[in-house]
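Please annotate the following for my students:
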Amino acid sequence: MMFLIDISLPFKDPVLVFSVVLFIIFFAPIVLKKFRIPGIIGLILSGVIVGPNGFNLLLRNSGIVLFGTVGLLYIMFLAGLEIDLNDFKKNKNKSLIFGGLTFSIPLILGTLASYYILHLSIQGSVLLASMFASHTLVSYPIASKLGLTKKQAVTLAIGGTIITDTVVLLLLAVITGSVSGDLDSAFWIQLSISLAIFAFIVLFIFPMVTKWFFKNVEGDGGAQYIFVLGIVFAAAFLAEVAGVEPIIGAFLAGLALNRLIPHTSPLMNRIEFIGNTLFIPFFLISVGMIVDIKVLFNGYQALLVAGVLITVALFSKWIAAYFTQKIFKFSVIERNLIFGLSSSHAAATLAVILVGFDLKLFDEAILNGTVLLILVTCMVSSFVTESAGRQLAIAESKGSGEYHEVEERILIAITNPASIEAKIDMAAMLKESDKSQPIYAVSVVNDDEEARDKLIQNRKMIDRAVKHAASAENKLEVVSRIDLNIANGIARAVKELMITEIIIGWHEKNTTTEKLFGTVLENLVVRTDQMIVATRILQPLNTISKIIVMVPPNAELEIGFKRWINMVKKLSKQTNSLVIFYGVADSLPHLKIAVNESKPGIDAEYRGYSDWDDFPLFSRHLNKDDLFIAVTARKATVSHSLFMDSIPRLLQKYFEKNSFMLVYPEQYSEDPENRNLQMDGTSSMIIEDLQRFNKFGKMLKGVIKWPKK
């Protein structure tokens, strides 16, 4: 029997084409993340590789164009939907000033550079300059993680985004109309009337209809999602009827439905999830399929274009931030934070450049230069935002001693039968003795055909855990979960039970799957904000004689600082152990105050230590009866550094004969629901790369001995 499917290149079978795109969406972020390439750039590069100008696996046919168009509209809809209108209203006057500066300065400088250096037409120059004026809050999650979203510099940047993106899209409508005809009075009258009718329908009629639907039409979340999606595309169609680009309709639909779709609602979760996992990646891949990287190597002209785009984009945004600083008397750190948030180009930039490319106002050199512009500006934005954000967070946190006392609830994860007793004993020591709160335990099995059998098998393990807890007069409340993976199941239990501290066992060996997708600990760190304690206890806890605690710089500024201090004190009191804290000189006074200001009193010593690259040397000075505690931090928090990412590997390698604990302090994100939905899995990869180069330079200094003059 002969196969009738044509598998010659490029692929034409729709099933095969769709499956290839889905596998690209699945694997590209995983693979390219290893090379420190942001997700948005990774998907565009994937489109370049598989497209007509790459290996010619796929054609940019009508199907790709259709899904790409949906993705573009989706980006603009989300941009309008995620804007915080309350913050905008509170600072609307200042936002108007910043919005005017961050729009007009890039527009003027961009127009001059495009016309006189790149020799574009006046229409093309203005349209390209409008691309410089727009910006996307790619690095906003960094500010959120650092707890800065209520700072005036951040709210100003958000307000400026609303203004500049709206004006850019209106300017796009004018330029689009001017390409097909003269900008006479009839054009302006017709555009004004059609825009007024269009805006009235989208901003007033659509919200009323949507509100009525949510109130009166019963249905599951899927029905609500389909209705909202229909509203978005209806608005996009009406924008076309009004004579402007469909992306303007999608953006206004986002603003119109902003108050009806709460940011933490299940509907918002569905909208972001489907967009970020399917439609938007399709759009980014379709953009990559247009790009021809070979143009960059055809002469100096293409490189000149890319250099001009990047230079003008960054310089003009910095000038806007500088004038904003002077007008409102902000600090240099706040100015840098505004620049970092407003310097990245992604969503609106892609929309503008594609419209200009379709209108023949831009050539391939401009298109390819824009891809490099997106790459560079997103990386610079992440670096500057994190650098300035950390400085501002540290300055704001000095001496604050912020600590939210909540009812203690400890959860242990039951995964390994061999470590059940040790984890229960650990939880019993950490639990407040005067409180009747039980110790919670969760048993999670993967959701597959064998889930039922695994639950029955786990029952024996659970009974064993309950008996061990009862023998020490501790109440153990066990919860069983069936979930997609263990980390998801634990994270859901943490939310439902309002857990404050999580205890999990140490995972000795990583499988290939875990190396690709992360271990349970790594995934749990991302999915929760509570304190996590990963333990590897090789002997009974009551035989511990000394506790060595490694404290990173700025640990005292974390929200969970006092909680883990209290944990160490409880362990010391229960085991009658001496505690030796190692930390930098600035942290030691804060450690002493935190240890001495509350009961119980413990025997503690404080020793200065700053050479964290020699962290494995701790293992040489540990005795068999010592417990080593390494305090680390989640990414993008105040005390996080590149070194911390290697701590689990170093513990596994150099501390295999020692008992140890790895502690992630609690860190409440201001937007925990949405942080896993960002397209870029790594928010500040460039700062980590710079730290790597710095570390490499130090190593070279130690190895190479330069001759003395």
